[in-house]
Amino acid sequence: MSLQLDIAHHLKHFSLTLKCQFPATGISGVFGHSGSGKTTLLRCIAGLDSHVSGTINFHGQSWLSKTKNMLTEQRNIGVIFQDSRLFPHLTVLQNLTLAQQQAKKPQLTIKKLSEDFIIDDLLEKPANQLSAGQQQRVAIVRSLLAQPQLLLLDEPLSALHHSAKETLMSHLKKLSDQLNLPMIYVSHSPNELAFMCDNLLLLDNGKMVAFGQASTLLAQQGLLGQQGVISHIDLANNSVTIELSPQQCSNLQLQQNIILKNNNH
Amino acid sequence: MSADFIALFLTLKLAALTTLILLSIGPFIAWWLAKSHSKLRPFFEALVALPLILPPTVLGFYLLLAFSPNYLPGEIWQSLTGTTLAFSFSGLLIGSILYSLPFVVQPLQAGFVTLGNKELEAATTLGLSKWQRCRYIILPMTKRSFLLAGVMGFAHTLGEFGVVLMIGGNIPGETQVLAISLFEHVEALEYQQAHQMAAGLLISSLVMLLIIYTFLQQKDH
Fold first, then answer.
1. CB-CB neighbors (< 8 A) of A86 in chain B
2. CA-CA to B214 of 20 to 30 Å: which in A218, A256, B8, B73?
3. Same domain membership, residue A68 and residue A189
4. Are A140 and A65 found together in one domain?
5. What Cα–Cα distance (Å) separates residue B200 from each residue in B6, B178, B195?
6. Residue A151 in 3-state DSSP?
7. Which domain holds residue A249?
8. Substitution target from B35, B114, B117, B125 for chain A, most A beta carbons within 10 A
């Protein structure tokens, strides 16, 4: 039982071609540079993109084939977007109730999840009056209340503070285990992925680079921790080449490869 | 009942039916114009907007020809109903629908463009069906556009003259609407009645627009 993908998605300036198999349990991560196709991949799985061809099977059910393209609303998936996409004309509670009404066998309660995700005092507020972090927490709860069989998360914590991120990551991980809910988690943060994910898919320019155990893969790629990886030492010129992950680069606002020159020698 | 009251009743009936029909078909046209990537979209957009700049008599003239039993639409109508469309209330209604189409479609189209796709995609991933998305997301989020479209369509039909005169003539109780009745009073130099009618149309149009813009402003705050 798994999510099997063999898809091709062609646009004018970008193509995603991918053949892989995500396990139908636990949390699988997707990592890659900006523009590598992470969000496109999630949109293809969700059925939100019409330019995709190939096959997608989940739990033996065909979502996409030559003759079939199952509608998004019939796939019973949840998607948490980078921007929360709450319904601005409804209150938080109305957003959650609408989602809960879609659950075939509601098991989760608004009360319990609201407490877990610290939004219980926001329920009567209009959704468009919340901060970005609050909106994202509501969006996560809303997706869970619809009781999807697969949850897709597209950098869901990017709008949150560091401390709030850790709490929510723990909650999501716990819920994935408790509900036996498989998740596919896209993030720019290797540390987030190392904490959250069992498996990891590395994408580059629309193609799979590697797929395997998250911690092993991240370590192999030198993406864990704060330090970069020394890739080349040139004794003749007294220089060391250090490769940094995109996350580290964006933090430092440097190029992807930098050369640190040892000026003491 | 005086001829003026009959004209008023007929005008209100025409405006109400036109608005009702346009609010039933307009959203589908507006949705397609707002969301379609078809190369034909500019053509249909221009076609819908045509009554805005076309002299009403031009539209009226071609409708008069189309309504004639000598041409296919008029011939089909006559074979189905046994009556002619020209100089009848049904013909007037069809003319009004075409003439007021952009006044209903354009506010709706603007509303649907502003709505965007993000909330709709989110609703789809929650499992909401097409009709649920329409009921819980599209209609509540664009209700102001619907209100504006309805009022614009109604108010515009109230003041119709050129098209009505061409295809409806001036038959009391059948095709004589307020604007034509007013024209008749002026022609007969009955300025007092003309004043009453003109002032009534002016004030009612102003009041309708005032109500809608006050409502929209309150919603903004």
1. 122
2. B8
3. yes
4. yes
5. 15, 10, 8
6. strand
7. 229-261
8. B125
Residue A83: exposure state from Cβ atoms within 10 A (0-12, 13-18, ≥19): middle
Mutate which of A84, A87, A151 to test chain B, going by most B C-beta atoms within 10 A?
Answer: A87
Q: Output the tens digit of pLDDT for each of chain A's 265 residues.
A: 589 989 998 887 888 999 999 988 899 999 988 888 999 999 999 999 888 999 999 988 999 999 989 999 999 999 999 888 999 999 999 999 999 999 988 888 999 999 988 899 999 999 999 988 899 999 999 999 999 999 999 998 887 777 778 888 888 988 898 888 999 999 988 888 888 898 999 998 889 988 988 888 888 877 765 544 444 445 556 555 555 555 555 555 444 444 444 434 3
CB of A242 within 8 A of CB of A228? Answer: yes
The strand pairing partners of A20, in sequence order, are A5
Domains of chain B, earliest start first: 3-220 (1.10.3720.10)
Please compute the mean of the pLDDT values over residues B72-77 and round it to a whole number: 91
Nearest-neighbour CA in chain B from A101: distance (Å): 9
Q: Does A48 touch chain B (CB under 8 A)?
A: yes
Give the closest of B128, B140, B141 to A73, CB-based: B128
Model-level ipTM above the cut of 0.85: no
- In what order do the strands lie in the sheet containing A150-154? A61-64, A52-58, A2-10, A15-23, A207-213, A199-204, A27-32, A183-186, A150-154, A77-80
pLDDT digits (tens, 9 = 90+) for A157-182: 887 777 778 888 888 988 898 888 99
Let me know whether A239 and A147 are in one domain. no
Asked whether the beta carbons of A115 and A109 are under 8 A apart, the reply is no
- CB of A184 less than 8 A from some CB of B: no
Q: Which of A76, A86, A89 has the CB atom closest to B141's CB atom?
A: A89
Q: Which of B131, B156, B116, B173 is CA-nearest to residue B22?
A: B156
Answer whether B126 sits within 8 Å of A77, measured CB to CB.
no
Statement to judge: residues A182 and A235 lie in one domain? no
Nearest-angstrom CA–CA distance, B82 and A236: 102
Q: From chain B, pick out residues whose CB is under 8 angstroms from the CB of A71.
A: 124
- Provide the pLDDT confidence category of residue B220 given band limits of 50, 70 and 90: low
What is the Cα–Cα distance from B31 to B107, expressed in whole angstroms?
11
CB A80, CB A146: distance < 8 Å:
no
- Which pTM does this prediction carry? 0.79
